[in-house]
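#struct-pred
JK: can someone run the complex with zinc ion? inputs below
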Amino acid sequence: MENLYCLRCNRELESGQKSVAVYVFAQTVGIRPRQKSAARRICFCPQCSVSLAMGPPPEGALNVAAWQMMRELVSSDPALTSAAWEALRAIDGFLPADETYEGFRRAVGSFLQF
Ligand SMILES: [Zn+2]
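RT: done, structure tokens with the ligand placed:
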């Protein structure tokens, strides 16, 4: 099975995990024979999707197009933002109640790269 990674943070996305998929393909117009490239699937985790949508526009026309699609998804329904919030909460959920600060640093460090 194909392993998918968030394009922005490189977090592994397991099959069926909440994420945003952007499909990109190119097709010739007005040229015969018509040619169509294979579609590429680009994935973003909910946290990066929300972060991108809330942030300033990126450089580059293609990136701006993707950014506008993210903004459309994030602004049309709170479900994606809710998924990002749940994922953020889960970082705390992994820690036992008596975990030390050092343990917390280790648990979060691999994600945030302190
Ligand atoms: Zn991500």
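RT: quick notes.
The radius of gyration is 18 Å.
The first strand starts at residue 4 and ends at 5.
JK: thanks, will look after standup
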